[in-house]
Write a sequence for this structure.
């Protein structure tokens, strides 16, 4: 995983609330067995019509979305399924941070493991950002993980929460698996105290 | 023991599974059972290969094929090459890493959340994960069960552990008695309509109260299954005599003296007197009606005799925009009733409602009646075992005589990955769990409801109140 730190980018506003994982990536694209070429699936059914032509009225097909790293959305983003394909496809499209009032639990967890920052901001700041992005499509924000802040065009910084462990992993670009693997002696001790009674393999 | 503060069921299970708790780090939580399916696992197995890791506990891992499997004649080759490849990949991965695998043709194959409980793999007090958000289902047996992403699937395969932060607790208390025609599906749809699809974010539900205690094991699974639709990663119900009776004699539960010992331990799981929750919501079972959704998330639900909300009745702009967009997608009007709205398809199945009791409930309504010829009715059992049981009871013949399709077990049209899908614009009453845009096929329009409502709708050809047929 690439380390995450600070970046400045235009913002793509999508004010819908409860954007679900089936909107982010429809289930029929989950038959893949790798993570290759996932850009095409991102918001597929909002981006393309039934003939596969881009819907020009959808913001992800507009010039302002090109190269944008920040998606600004309504509350409870990523509700629904546990599919990690959702952060994978958002990152393949180019996003590095999602700003929202709130995130679905599994989506947040998946995003953090892939270097996609779930940036939770208060309702007043979210509304302000939607207004600013509406007025000025070229508006840029700076997201800085080390200081856990989003810098607005007027110079004001707003902090966002992130747990220290995830933050450290993201800043260093390391997979959390390394930490669990280091717990080997504790895991062994636990397993000795809790043996498997009926192994699943008995049913084969 | 006596020095401990009173704990909830969730806190007891959590405490028992913490392997390590370091300052400023999430807890390392031990996972008793890891369920695997074809969709969310291939990239995790690939990760193991790339890192030179093995599956730590094959005896705590089991895989089944459910999402991509065709529900038509299984002796024919799979025509969708991507689905075929994904299913083959699961088989290859399981063989390579030594994991038991219930593929097509295996007598245990079925939807992952149906086979766990029916095989007795799911037991009270366990921690259970799967790369699937409906893992919450297993909480009905008093297990802490939740969905994880593919990176976490890899973590659990490699270490049998997961990094987790303790969730908040959320009591959903349902007292009273359900009236005739009202089911556990209606309880959970009513809850989500009340708190919204984000209402449980950050929390674990525990369902309590006399109405919950009175439910059968399978009815409880339907409720816990849709916890995630209310935003909670897990939903729990304290184990009781109904749980023990359900589990007794199932293939994986302890036998003889070990059974008695297990039941003794399981009896200690329910929350202590005085244990408190961070949040509480109360529902009155006596007042519940059959529920149905009208929109594009499971929180957009109303009693079947009710009307779609008007834009004016909503509090903020954001909700009004969401309602307007949902109704545009559904091609429905605010303020209108749903009763009598024509449907094209009825789907009875999914990890929410494909167990034998769900099929019996639908069959009870369909017996001796015919489905409306304009409606395609698909009945998809949740597993090979459910299918066998249904056959013993003559249900396939009953469904076919009524004009329904009786199909092979799998997720089918709940997620529409296997070719079972709606055509654009079609309306479907579905016993599944999600009515998202395109969930049952591009442009498909889903009304979520119970198996009873689905059966009544199949007969009438339009959204119907099952209580008129009882």
């Amino acid at each position: 995983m690439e380390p995450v730190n600070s970046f400045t980018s235009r913002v793509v506003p999508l004010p819908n609330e409860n954007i679900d994982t089936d909107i982010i990536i429809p289930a029929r694209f989950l038959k893949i067995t790798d993570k290759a070429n996932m850009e095409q699936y991102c918001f597929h059914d909002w981006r393309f019509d039934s003939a596969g032509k881009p819907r020009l009225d959808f913001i992800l097909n507009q010039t302002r979305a090109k190269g944008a790293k920040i998606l600004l959305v309504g509350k409870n983003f990523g509700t629904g399924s546990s599919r990690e394909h959702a952060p994978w496809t958002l990152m393949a499209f180019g996003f590095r941070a999602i700003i929202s009032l709130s995130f679905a639990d599994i989506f947040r967890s998946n995003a953090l493991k892939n270097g996609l920052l779930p940036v939770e901001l208060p309702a007043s700041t979210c509304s302000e950002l939607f207004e600013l992005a509406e007025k000025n499509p070229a508006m840029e924000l700076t997201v800085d993980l080390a200081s856990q802040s989003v810098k607005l065009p007027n110079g004001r910084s707003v902090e966002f929460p992130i747990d220290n462990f995830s933050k450290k992993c993201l800043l260093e670009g390391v997979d959390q698996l390394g930490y669990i693997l280091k717990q080997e002696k504790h895991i062994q001790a636990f397993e000795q105290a809790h043996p498997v009674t009926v192994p699943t393999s008995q049913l084969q | 023991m006596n020095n401990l503060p009173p704990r909830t069921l969730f806190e007891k299970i959590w405490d028992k599974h913490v392997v390590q708790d370091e300052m400023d780090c999430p807890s390392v939580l031990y996972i008793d059972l890891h369920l695997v399916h074809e969709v969310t696992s291939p990239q995790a197995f690939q990760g193991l290969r790339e890192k030179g890791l093995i599956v730590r506990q094959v005896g705590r891992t089991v895989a089944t094929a459910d999402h991509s499997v065709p529900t038509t004649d299984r002796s024919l080759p799979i025509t969708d090459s991507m689905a075929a490849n994904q299913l083959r990949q699961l088989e290859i991965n399981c063989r390579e890493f030594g994991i038991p695998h219930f593929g097509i043709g295996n007598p245990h194959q079925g939807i992952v959340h149906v086979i766990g409980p029916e095989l007795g793999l799911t037991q009270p007090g366990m921690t259970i994960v799967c790369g699937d958000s409906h893992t919450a289902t297993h909480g009905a047996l008093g297990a802490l069960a939740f969905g994880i992403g593919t990176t976490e699937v890899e973590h659990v395969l490699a270490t049998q552990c997961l990094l987790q932060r303790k969730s908040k607790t959320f009591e959903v208390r349902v007292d009273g008695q359900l009236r005739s025609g009202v089911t556990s599906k209606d309880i959970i749809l009513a809850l989500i309509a009340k708190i919204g699809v984000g209402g449980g974010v950050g929390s674990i539900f525990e369902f309590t109260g006399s109405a919950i205690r009175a439910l059968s094991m399978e009815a409880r699974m339907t409720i816990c299954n849709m916890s995630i639709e209310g935003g909670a990663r897990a939903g729990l119900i304290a184990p009781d005599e109904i749980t023990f009776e359900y589990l007794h004699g199932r293939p994986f539960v302890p036998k003889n003296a070990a059974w008695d010992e297990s039941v003794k331990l399981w009896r200690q799981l329910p929350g202590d007197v005085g244990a408190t929750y961070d949040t509480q919501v109360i529902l009155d079972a006596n007042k519940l009606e059959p529920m149905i959704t009208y929109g594009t998330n499971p929180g957009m639900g109303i009693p079947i005799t009710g009307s779609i909300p008007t834009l004016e009745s909503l509090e903020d702009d954001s909700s009004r925009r969401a309602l307007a967009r949902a109704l545009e997608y559904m091609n429905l009007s605010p303020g209108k009733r749903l009763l009598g709205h024509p449907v094209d398809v009825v789907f009875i199945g999914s990890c929410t409602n494909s167990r034998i009791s769900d099929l019996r409930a639908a069959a009870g309504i369909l017996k001796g009646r015919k489905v409306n010829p304009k409606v395609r009715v698909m009945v998809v059992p949740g597993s090979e075992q459910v299918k066998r049981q249904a056959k013993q009871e003559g249900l396939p013949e009953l469904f076919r005589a009524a004009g329904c399709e009786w199909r092979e077990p799998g997720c089918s049209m709940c997620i529409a990955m296997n070719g079972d899908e709606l055509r654009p614009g079609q309306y479907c009453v579905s016993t599944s769990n999600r009515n998202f845009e395109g969930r049952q096929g591009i442009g498909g329009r889903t009304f979520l409801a119970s198996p009873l409502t689905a059966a009544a709708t199949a007969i009438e050809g339009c959204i119907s109140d099952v209580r008129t047929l009882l």
